[in-house]
Specification:
With 233 residues, the protein is of the alpha+beta class. It contains 8 helices and 8 strands. This is Transglutaminase-like cysteine peptidase, predicted.
């Protein structure tokens, strides 16, 4: 289903500050992902078949085809292709309905297998796919924001993916709510709180990493561990 036809998601299940607080842990766990060379298509197929059957495997094959089609395209084409792919194939559904948990961060395999997810799941799937297409993590960050609802002053927790042409550049925003990829300055409904990728964690709009994301973000660490098992990394 195209992103433009999604119902606008509500995040009333989370109190914003409580959600952010739950993400942070004490430092010092020191877990590191395996090298990118560990990407294993056959293991991904086996994982998808076991967990989601033929329907999930069909979507995974579409994803492999997307990787092949975009591999030699320019950055803008990769951003558009990946953004559209997940916005069309994942239906926005609250975590409590999909996973029976208040806040679950799915791997791309889980999101594609279910065909459902929320903002974190879109962002993670786009991030991992763009990395597989050769856009390194220095250009990509998942951005946790306060999203204003319509013209009201009500804000909700939300996550988007940002593409940075340089570390200090204004990011392009890939979102599941707004289907077009736009510069951050045009998304006046979003106020960034922090951003992270595989290599660092940044407060607000800072260009200097403050922490190891694997040590400080429990849900990101859990996603990394499951992606290692499934064959992504």
């Amino acid at each position: 289903m195209p992103a433009s036809s999604h119902h606008t998601p509500t995040f009333s299940r989370r109190q914003f500050l409580a959600t952010v607080g739950a993400l942070w842990l004490g430092a010092g766990l020191g877990i590191h992902p395996t090298p990118a060379a560990a990407f294993d298509p056959q293991r991904l197929r086996q994982s998808m078949q076991q967990q989601y059957g033929q329907a999930g495997l069909s979507v995974l094959e579409e994803w492999f085809n997307l990787l092949q089609q975009l591999q030699n395209q320019d950055v803008q084409a990769k951003l558009r292709g990946v953004n559209d792919f997940f916005n069309r194939r994942i239906r926005w559904i609250d975590d409590i309905q999909v996973w029976g948990q208040e806040d679950y961060w799915a791997t791309p395999l889980e999101a594609m297998g279910k065909g459902q997810g929320d903002c974190e799941d879109y962002s993670i799937a786009k991030y991992i796919t763009l990395k597989q297409l050769g856009i390194t993590s220095q250009y990509l960050r998942m951005i946790y924001v306060r999203a204003r609802i319509g013209r009201s002053q009500i804000t909700q927790a939300h996550m988007v993916l940002g593409y940075y042409s340089t570390p200090d550049a204004e990011p392009l925003v890939l979102d599941n709510i707004v289907p077009s990829i736009t510069p951050a300055s045009q998304r006046t409904d979003l106020d960034p709180l922090f951003s992270f990728n595989s290599d660092g964690l940044w407060a607000g709009g800072s260009s200097e990493s403050r922490a190891d994301p694997l040590a400080r973000l429990s849900r990101w660490r859990s996603v990394i561990e499951r992606m290692q098992t499934q064959g992504f990394i």
